[in-house]
Amino acid sequence: AEDERDGLRLARQCVRRFNWRKRGPAPRCFPPNPPKYDAEDLLSMAGADPATVFEPREVLARILDGSDFDEFKPTQGTALVTGWGELHGYPIGVLANLGGAFSPAETQKAVHFIQLANATATSLLFVQYTGAPAAEAHEAADVRHGAPLVHAVAKSTVPHLTLMIGARPAEEAGGIYGRAYEPRFLFSWPVERPAEGSPPLGKLPDDGVIDPRDTRTVLGLCLSAVHSAAVEGAEHVGVFRP
């Protein structure tokens, strides 16, 4: 190879002769329908004041195929948005928090949704919004009500992807979607780093800080990668008990 770029070209040339076939569900449509809304809008969302209300549906409208999102139980547990869509043709289930504390309603909704995703062998995208540091009361509520959800996430066997959005870096806001729960890929949008107690950039527990406008492309590549193997769900991922 003459240089690194030429080396990558040669590697791709070799790999394409492997006759490799993906074993996960194929894309539902090809070529996929692009989102109806401009990805440039994601820049303003990434730079929004953390005191403002986060609206995950606006993000999803700019990364999902055709901006099509079938919401699951929209009137229940409104601090959590869940639903189905496609991303570059691949089916995906989305769980996106709004930055508030979870009540039993959000926990029940999330557990049921994760169970359905595993029953249908559908990959999951966790959109973790991390606003200003939560009050102690909110953190206590999350711990008290979140045990069934932690169990469900830990027992889920479909591929998990995580996207961190918000004012706090990923290492300070792992939540139930963080590196401890071993998502296949974890990416963050850029954030302004806190003045004190921040680890160096090289120790961030993610796979990269990405340009918000590249979110759809990056997640599409991740889904293509995880679909190289079979996508298999767990028979049992937890039962919610209030």
- Return the CATH architecture: Alpha-Beta Complex
**How helical, in percent, are the residues?**
25-40%
Helix-strand pattern, N to C? HHHEEEHEHEEH
Structurally, the number of domains stands at 1
Q: How many helical elements?
A: 6
Radius of gyration: 18 Å
Give the overall silhouette: globular
What distinguishing features does this structure have?
242 residues; 2-enoyl-CoA Hydratase, Chain A, domain 1; 29% helix; six-stranded mixed β-sheet; alpha/beta
Description:
By secondary structure, the protein is of the alpha/beta class. It has a single domain (22-226), classed as 2-enoyl-CoA Hydratase, Chain A, domain 1. It contains six helices and six strands, in the order H-H-H-E-E-E-H-E-H-E-E-H. Helix 4 runs parallel beside helix 5 (136-155). It is globular. Mean pLDDT is 82; it is low at 134-138, 170-174 and 195-202.
Fold topology:
Layout (H helix, E strand, L loop, with lengths): L3 H12 L25 H6 L9 H5 L9 E2 L8 E8 L2 E8 L6 H16 L3 E8 L5 H20 L4 E7 L18 E4 L26 H12 L16
Parallel strand pairs: 3-4, 4-5, 5-6
Antiparallel strand pairs: 1-2, 2-3
